[in-house]
Amino acid sequence: MFNDTITAISTKLGNSAISIIRVSGKDSISLVNSIFRGKDLTKVDSHTINYGYIKDGKEDIDEVLVSIMKSPRTYTKEDIVEINCHGGVSPTLKIFELLQEKGARKAEPGEFTKRAFLNGRIDLTEAEAVMDMINSKTDRSRKEALSGIEGNLRKYITTFRNKLKYILANIEVNIDYPEYYDIEEITKEDIKKVIEELEIDLKELIKKSEERQIIKNGIKTVIIGRPNVGKSSILNTLLKEDKAIVTDIEGTTRDIVEGSIIFDGIELSLIDTAGIRETDNIVEKIGVEKSLSLIDDANLIIVVLNGNEKLTENDIYILDKVKDKNPIIVLNKNDLEQKIDLKDYKFKHIVSTNTKEINGIDSLKEEIKKMFKLNEIEEDDYTYLTNDRQLFYAKKALNNLNDAKTSFNNDEPIDIIEIDLKSVFENLGNITGENYSEELLDELFANFCVGK
């Protein structure tokens, strides 16, 4: 499909033990052979590693190991060569420049994976899983990405499409060739059964996928409260480091302080905000406004209150701001006499903590697990939709399925129901990349690393 040969540095440029420079395309082997001193690479077996030197004319540039992988059993289904050189900046860039002088084109971000997709080696869900693997920060997100790379989501979507394909093919035959009596006749009851089965499965897939987006994206958590209620102490305790400055002086935290932890296999991105209160200090005022602006983007809002004090006007202002956001209310300083009263509020998640004891915030951790159902995520089931693009088309397919169900219940002709079922089939195909546009591919692969 492709007439040119591409190259990229596939490892981070800097001082390291090795660098890997990758080449893919019809001329990759001969091109690298033209700057290689060692065996004739055009005659070596596929999937072999060959010792030698990269040379520029008569001058040796670096001692290298060259991996030869011949089409079609390669990542891109094209001939691929990988040059393992020493990891210094100078030898890496010199070899990379030589390859371009010999005719290789500098690869665009994700172009190797894009070629793998366009050459039919992987589908879009597998391509997206490759990037998810690169970006994975937790063991759960790694397992999720690996499931996608292994094609489990593709296989799952294909089972949906195969059910539809059988029904659609038989509808077509029955409509176009009614005179052939030996052909199995598809009845409305057959169609109804398929619609009902697909609806149950697709709803479950979407529900499960939405719940488990946190495996990939993590939980964006904002800690808010008035000054001096212990927000920074809770952040430091969760992070197990003194990330935020803790003093008895109100307004110490004037800007957001961020950190992240791996919590029960999920990344918890924590933001400690400036204490929310009325203030004339310009810098602190900006911090307060920024704190309030973060509330709408958070997956989890932790509101910290002093349990040993009655509610203040600032506390009430904050509680009113988050009353529809399903926050976790933390009554801090439970080692002191408790005076707070929340009888006028109906929050679902209220815990009592302190940062004086080793296990003083365990109740908060347990509430987070409960709130996001972290204990219910099955370790052996990572087959689900992992991004907004996949969810978008799954929901479109479900809407088409509901249209088909309505048509069926309204006793519409089978050829009308067929139109909706074809839309279901098409939108499921959009998930795996059976249908795609250049704009979609450009946008998707632009987020990849160069060299992958």
Distance between the termini: 19 Å
Superfamily (CATH H level) name of the largest domain: P-loop containing nucleotide triphosphate hydrolases
Oligomer: single chain
The average pLDDT value, as a whole number, equals: 86
User: Can you tell me the residue ranges where pLDDT is under 50 for at least 5 consecutive residues?
Assistant: 179-184, 243-255
Please identify the top-level CATH class of the largest domain: Alpha Beta
Radius of gyration over C-alpha positions, nearest whole angstrom? 29 Å
Number of strands: 13
- Classify the fold: give the CATH topology of the largest domain: Rossmann fold
Structural class: alpha/beta
Numbering strands along the chain, what is their spatial order in the largest sheet?
Answer: 3-4-5-6-2-1-7
In the CATH hierarchy, the architecture of the largest domain is 3-Layer(aba) Sandwich
Total domain count = 3
Shape: flat
**Helical coverage, percent range:** 40-55%
Strand portion:
15-25%
| Number of H/I helices | 15
* Major beta sheet summary: 7 strands, mixed
Series of H and E elements:
EEHEEEEHEHHHHHHEHEEHEHEEHHHH
